[in-house]
Design brief:
Strand order of the largest sheet: 1-11-12-13-9-10-4
Number of strands: 13
Helix content: 25-40%
Radius of gyration: 20 Å
Length: 337
């Protein structure tokens, strides 16, 4: 598992940039534009473990050491929803890890990270953390997870969030463990409803207008997978607003194709109707832009999609100083082809 390459997704091949739910039913609806040939693939997995795992572990560990409270927290998370969500994470991580991780209902073990712990999922308890020699053990040797959510989140390449809904109506973000945020602060979202969480996203108005139906679908009719994408000038995973500055969205950074990346977030949504909530996972896939658009047809469609962005969306994605040179480069690739 730890030697397999990460997948390459190209959501821009629609030729348009959109802010919408864009939900595909996991295991039912094929996801288009996957892999080198941009084919349609039926996906059923929630978690993906691949050769990027050491980089994710190192990045998450660095964020954890720096300021865990800026990335993780809870707000009105019920014991029932905590247990439903974390039980799903534990058993699904183990099932989809190809034997790297195991879960017996009490003890979760990661044979790559070299640790195991007994978990009380209803109350988020973590007991008896044990360590042993393993390939990636040095990356987390000095870390002590604070609870079950923190422990499970450190084992996954994906970030985790839990959405809650009151039986009488109203939803809120009840928990986050997001150590690879893309220029947003998880603390700003915690405890807020779907509309407030997405309001800062340029172009989210039409999606927010259907918030109640979307939340109901996520909780009652999933699981789903969706994708968000953008062009970044760094392959760093953690872009928390108060993390150390890097080239991405630095006003002094200029477009350079050799330092540009496509960042795609694969997001899954799994509902727990009886517990009145859902689990939301976020996994960034970061690919060098020249590789992504090596086919001139792909360069043409990325340029087309970028040209459909509104000024607000260009600004939100941090592309204002980059877009003219980026489009000129893409157009040149298309002409050369």
């Amino acid at each position: 598992m730890l030697t397999s390459p990460p997948k390459l997704y190209r959501p821009f091949l629609s030729g348009r940039y959109t802010v919408s739910a864009g939900l595909y039913r996991l295991g039912v609806q094929a996801v288009p534009w996957v892999g080198p040939d941009a084919s349609s693939v039926l996906e059923g997995h929630t978690f993906a473990l691949d050769r990027e795992s050491p980089r994710f572990v190192a990045s998450k560990a660095a964020a954890h050491r720096r300021a865990l409270h800026e990335y993780a927290g809870e707000a009105g998370l019920t014991p029932e929803l905590r247990e439903a969500a974390l039980s799903f994470v534990a058993r699904t991580l183990a099932r989809e890890s190809g034997g790297v991780m195991t879960w017996d209902g009490r003890t979760f073990t990661n044979h790559a990270l070299g640790w195991s712990a007994d978990l009380g999922l209803r109350w988020g308890r973590l007991k008896d953390l044990r360590r042993f020699n393993a390939p990636l053990a040095p990356l987390i040797a000095d870390l002590t997870p604070v609870n079950a959510l923190d422990f499970l989140g450190l084992n996954a390449q994906e970030d985790l969030a839990i959405i809650a809904r009151h039986p009488d109506g109203g939803d809120w973000l009840a928990a986050v463990h997001v150590l690879s945020p893309q220029h947003w602060d998880p603390r700003d979202k915690l405890g807020r409803d779907f509309v407030a969480v997405h309001e800062p996203v340029a172009g989210s108005g039409p999606m927010n207008a259907t918030a109640a139906r979307l939340v109901d679908a996520v909780i009652s009719r999933g699981p789903f997978v969706r994708f968000a994408w953008g062009v970044a000038m760094s392959d760093r995973l953690d872009h928390h607003p108060v993390a150390p500055l890097d080239p991405d969205r630095n006003p002094d950074t200029h477009f350079d194709p050799e330092r540009a990346f496509l960042r795609v977030e694969r997001q899954t949504l799994t509902g727990f109707p009886e517990a009145h909530g859902a689990l939301f996972t976020i996994r960034p896939y970061i690919s060098p832009l020249p590789e992504v658009v090596a086919d001139p047809a792909h360069a043409r469609l990325l340029a087309a999609a970028l040209r459909t962005m509104t000024p607000g969306q260009v600004a939100y994605k941090g592309l204002v100083p980059l877009l003219p040179d980026l489009l000129a480069w893409l157009d040149g690739l298309d002409s050369d082809g």
